[in-house]
Amino acid sequence: MREARRTEYHPSQRRKIRGRGFSLAELLLVIATLGTIIGVAVPAYRDYLEKAKMTKAVTDIRTLEKGIQLYEDDTGALPNSLSDIGQASLPDPWGNPYVYLNISDAANRGAMRKDRFLVPLNSDYDLYSKGPDGRSRPPLTARDSWDDIIRANDGGYVGLASDY
Q1: CA distances from 123 to 50, 153, 158, 161, 164 (A)
Q2: CA distances from 35 to 9, 32, 38, 40 (A)
Q3: Domain CATH number, residue 77
Q4: pLDDT (tens digit, 9 = 90+) per residue, 137-154?
Q5: Which has the closest alpha carbon to 115: 149, 143, 144, 152?
Q6: What are the pLDDT digits (tens) for 14-66?
Q7: Average pLDDT of 76-96?
Q8: Could you say which DSSP state residue 93 is in?
Q9: CA–CA separation, 69 vs 63, rounded Å?
Q10: In a domain, 19, yes or no
């Protein structure tokens, strides 16, 4: 029969064997550190995504402006809708359709976008995104319009309505 061998450990080896796990304090410290990092990183990432969507909307509006200009150069008149330039199905970054309004059409004058002094933003056409909330009203002072991405000054400004 084989005799069970008893292994003797040197005292320094015993400490190594016992010290392989993490203490509760170390685990709590790691969890607290990760929580802090996540608490800072998630809002920063959301802000980054929202700014990226706003930039995409500005780029889309500039692209639509070019298409409208090409249409006007070819036909001598502004398009009646975005479908005339083949962009009716283009959604903004929040999934809503872009809004186009030909101001030269007398029937549309009442729906023109207006600044805080109720002066029309454009003299040719209005083009904008309704922003993240998907709601908008003609005056920029309306709370529903603050997050809109607008075209103003006949294309001199494209950006957030609250910054105009």
Answers
A1: 30, 8, 15, 17, 17
A2: 40, 5, 5, 9
A3: 3.30.700.10
A4: 989 999 999 999 999 999
A5: 152
A6: 555 555 788 989 999 999 999 999 999 999 999 999 999 999 999 999 999 99
A7: 93
A8: T
A9: 10
A10: no
Place of tokens 């998907």: 134
What pLDDT was estimated at residue 2? 57
Contacts of 95 (CB under 8 A, 6+ apart): 134
160 torsion bin: left (phi>0), alpha (psi -120 to 50), beta (else): beta
2 within a domain of the structure (yes/no) = no
The average pLDDT across 91-97 equals 95
* Domain hosting residue 38, numbered range: 24-163
Q: What is the DSSP string of the chain?
A: -PPPPPPPPPHHHHHHHHTTSPPHHHHHHHHHHHHHHHHHHHHHHHHHHHHHHHHHHHHHHHHHHHHHHHHHHHHSS--SSGGGGT-TT-B-TTSPBPEEEETTSGGGGGG--B-TTS-BS-SSEEEEE-TTTT---SBTTSGGGTT-EEEEGGGTEEEEGGG-
